[in-house]
Design brief:
binds adenosine-5'-triphosphate; binds manganese (II) ion
Length: about 325
């Protein structure tokens, strides 16, 4: 195992937590965290000067990384070079990541043995200024998904929002998953147009909560059980649906105590097939359109393009 340098360095000043606390948490969480990272190309966010300073995203694995860190190479068109994503599969890898001041683990929504197929649909609830609790929005999304025959799982992001996730079979590419996620998001927004939007551009949201569909089988998402660079040392925390109430307070789930909880994701729904869902969505008059300009041109991981805007609903088409 690596020796931790500067264990007393304070990374979360407001919470009084150090680099040693980070290391201890991550290794205590290993049984839950490692399955979230296994076989997934990893981006991480490092905070060498603590969470009150700026951190930085790291996609490329440094040459000096130890053998415990695996590498998965992919050509990144956006950067015009090859990126060696890290793979973390054991406690040794987690320990080294802590030594590097890695606070946030952002795995891809795909596994490397089938890199062209995502294994989850993601709805990322990003609150606006209006007073609609993210938990309520998550329940609205769940309601629509259930009508379509899907059962989602849910977690806090560790930030302000909530992530609603449907595990899916690895049969579908981005050309289906992006438009399908947008179409489902639209169905939710149609029911609550004053509170919700699918508009990605912030200045177009008018304070409404964004149901972010653009991760429709693409890019990364903060891992369940990953710490966040939040002043309170929050953790992205799996919830059971009966915890998803309007008064849900994501800052209750913090590094020093979150592992005392049971793991609501210990049992997961069987990965879903989507053929019937696609038909059900189209039966409701929503056409599947790929709104992402990068949709067909870039890989799942190469997502540094412009922020897409949501296209107008295709009227009756
Ligand atoms: P919050 O609840 O505060 O929105 P979040 O984790 O959902 O927290 P978002 O900004 O909504 O944060 O982004 C969703 C996901 O997209 C993140 O979890 C992260 O994995 C990925 N992401 C966002 N910004 C970047 C970035 N600059 N580089 C790499 N990945 C990013
Ligand atoms: Mn979010």
């Amino acid at each position: 195992m690596v020796t931790l340098s500067s264990p007393d360095k304070v990374l979360w000043p407001a919470a009084g937590l150090t680099k040693q606390d980070l290391y201890d948490y991550v290794l205590d969480a290993a049984d839950r965290l490692l399955p979230q990272l296994a076989d997934r190309p990893l981006s991480v966010k490092r905070f060498p000067r603590g969470v009150e300073a700026t951190g930085f995203f790291v996609k490329d694995t440094p040459d000096h990384a130890p053998p415990a860190i695996g590498r998965w190479r992919e050509w990144a068109h956006s950067a015009d070079r090859e990126v060696a994503y890290s793979l973390v599969s054991d406690r040794e890898g987690l320990a080294w990541m802590s030594q590097q001041n890695t606070i946030e683990f952002h795995p891809a929504l795909l596994r490397i043995d089938r890199p062209d197929r995502a294994d989850q649909l993601v709805f990322d609830v990003d609150p606006g200024q209006r007073e609609v609790p993210p938990a309520r929005v998550a329940r609205w999304i769940r309601g629509v998904l259930q009508e379509l025959g899907l059962e989602p799982i849910v977690k806090t992001s560790g930030g302000r929002g909530v992530h609603v996730i449907v595990p899916i079979e690895r049969r579908y590419g981005p050309d289906l998953l992006r438009p399908l996620t947008l179409a489902i998001a639209r169905l939710v927004v149609e029911q609550h147009p004053d509170e919700l939007t699918v508009e990605m551009r912030k200045d177009q949201r008018g304070g409404r909560t964004l149901v972010d569909w653009s991760r429709g089988g693409s890019s990364t998402l903060i891992a369940a059980w990953s710490p966040r660079a939040h002043p309170a040392a929050t953790v992205a925390t799996p919830l059971s649906w009966d915890e998803v109430t309007d008064d849900l307070d994501p800052t209750r789930f913090v590094m020093p105590s979150v592992l005392e909880r049971d793991d609501p994701w210990a049992e997961q729904p069987r990965p879903a097939r989507l053929e019937r869902v696609v038909r059900a969505v189209e039966d409701r008059g929503v056409t599947l359109v790929d709104a992402s300009p990068r949709g067909r041109t870039s890989s799942y991981l190469d997502q540094d393009g412009a922020v897409p805007s949501a296209p107008a609903a295709a009227d009756g088409a």
